[in-house]
Amino acid sequence: MDYDTLIVGAGLFGAVCARELKQKGRRVLVIDRRPHPAGNIYTCRVNGIWVHQYGAHIFHTSDRKVWDYVNQFTEFNHYINSPVARYGDELYNLPFNMNTFSRMWNIATPAQAKEIIDRQVAEAKKDYHITEPKNLEEQALSLAGRDIYEKLIKGYTEKQWGRDCRDLPAFIIRRLPFRFVYDNNYFNDRYQGIPVGGYTQIVEKMLEGIPVLLRTDYRKSVTKRDGAFCLGQDTFRDVIYTGMIDEFFDYRLGPLEYRSLRFETQELPETDNFQGNAVVNYTERSVPYTRIIEHKFFEFGKDSETGEPIHGTVITREYPAAWQQGMEPYYPVNDEKNAALYRRYQELAQGEPHVMFGGRLGMYRYFDMDKVIRAALDTVAAM
Ligand SMILES: Cc1cc2nc3c(=O)[nH]c(=O)nc-3n(C[C@H](O)[C@H](O)[C@H](O)COP(=O)(O)OP(=O)(O)OC[C@H]3O[C@@H](n4cnc5c(N)ncnc54)[C@H](O)[C@@H]3O)c2cc1C
Question: Would you name the residues annotated as active-site residues?
Answer without folding.
Answer: 175, 179, 259, 291, 318, 366, 368
